[in-house]
Specification:
8 helices; Rossmann fold; alpha/beta; 7 strands; 7-stranded mixed sheet
């Protein structure tokens, strides 16, 4: 087994379940043209996020890490007409691309894109006493995900789901002595979740066109 075979399997199932979509393809193309890193979620994971939001009948979604807006479009597609997605992006250039992609997709009225460090914008959400989120997707710098998770939990309600992407990192998560802040942040996050009685969680390893990684799925307990 190798990455070429993983990618071929992705392509096979994507052709059946996640066919190419002009709006989503344009979001990726414009992100690449603008020089954004090619780290958006895969088509399969985008569809997974959409299905999760649909199954939860989510009305309010929080995304930490907008990049070019690709995953935000997937999530917004799952919202009802009175739904709301808040997506946070630290990089103004990324936010500009994301905002244009979201507007072209027709979700400008459903999506509130906030620019700034998430560690600054998340406390402001709490200060606004915003309604709790049904689903939170965390896909930002991994060194800070313990703090992102803590805020996501604070902004959730019983029955909410939190999904944290890129938690396996090609198996490097096993290296407890790593000097990579992303590895150490991810390991701290895992320890925090394991010790948190208010949640139940599991991690699923993934292979595919994006390589070897995985995500953690967290349910806020009743």
């Amino acid at each position: 087994m190798n990455k070429d075979q993983w990618s071929d399997v992705d392509a096979y199932y994507d052709s059946l379940f996640v066919p190419h979509d002009a709006t989503l393809d344009a979001a990726l193309e414009d992100s690449a043209k603008a020089g954004l890193p090619t780290i958006a979620v895969s088509r399969a994971l985008g569809k997974f996020l959409y299905l999760q939001a649909r199954m939860l009948q989510a009305r309010r979604i929080l995304e930490i890490g907008s990049l070019g807006g690709y995953s935000a479009i997937w999530l917004a597609r799952a919202l009802p007409s009175d739904g709301h997605l808040i997506t946070l992006e630290a990089d103004p250039k990324h936010a500009q691309v994301a905002r244009a992609n979201i507007a072209r997709a027709g979700f400008e009225s459903l999506v509130d894109l906030r620019i700034g460090s998430a560690l600054d914008t998340l406390p402001s959400l709490a200060e606004e006493k915003t309604e709790a989120f049904d689903l939170t997707f965390i896909d930002a710098d991994k060194k800070s995900i313990p703090e992102y998770f803590a805020w996501a939990l604070k902004l959730s309600h019983p029955g909410s789901v939190i999904i944290i992407d890129n938690v396996v990192r090609n198996g490097a998560i096993l290296n407890a002595n790593s000097d990579d802040p992303d590895i150490q942040g991810t390991r701290r996050m895992a320890d925090i979740i394991a010790a948190e009685p208010r949640v139940s969680a599991t991690t699923i390893q993934t292979v595919g066109s994006k390589g070897y990684d995985g995500f953690t799925l967290v349910l806020v307990n009743e």
